[in-house]
Amino acid sequence: MPVSAKICGLSTEDTLGAAIAGGASHVGFVFFAPSPRDVDPARAAALVAMVPDHVRAVGVFVDPDDAAVERAVSVAGIDTLQLHKTAPSRVAALRARFGIETWAAVAVKTRADLDAARSYAGAADRILYDAKTPDGAALPGGMGVRFDWSLLDGFRHPLPWALSGGLDAGNVAEAVRRTGATLVDVSSGVESAPGVKDVDKIAAFLQSVAQL
User: Fold this and answer.
1) 130 an active-site residue?
2) Domains and CATH numbers, the chain
3) Which of 14, 53, 66, 130 is catalytic?
4) Which of 147-155's residues contact partners 24+ apart within 8 Å by CB, and which partners?
5) pLDDT, tens digit, for every residue of 36-52?
6) Which positions make up the signal peptide (predicted)?
């Protein structure tokens, strides 16, 4: 089955262009002030306007209030929600209110962490398995941390899913072979510094995915 890719945390025209030109199926925009990848809705709107119809524009949030999502949907024009640290009931409520595809991130460090995925059945459209960041970390992702992919062995996924956490051009092929992922998500793995995307790294990552 073909593998598709999401480039997350985009904030400039040139890096967004590199993601689109390289064949990304999804592009992500972060709406979370503590993140070095945070974009305001007006800036995001200018970028989303560049996104062709066949590419999904994903808004990334950490347990947001309705107003934050409303601004991203109505002003920026995102068409997919990606929710971190958000309870299943809240995920379901946002999905129902805005009526767009909704992903729930599940932070993974141990096999027991995967159990949380089951609670999103009926609440979300997709699970994003991401590496659990260290205790006390300000960010829920985008820190280059990966989890043990063997934890997914034999796990019965309750929903369609995507793989994130510490991916880059050098390990994405191994990650896909090991887990069977058909959608991979990268952020820090295509950066030259936190929040600074690199067009060459984006191109290399997407070329690695295209060869799978």
Assistant:
1) yes
2) 4-210 (3.20.20.70)
3) 130
4) 147/108, 147/109, 149/175, 149/178, 149/179, 150/178, 151/108, 151/110, 151/111, 151/113, 151/114, 152/114, 152/179, 152/180, 155/114
5) 999 999 999 999 999 99
6) none
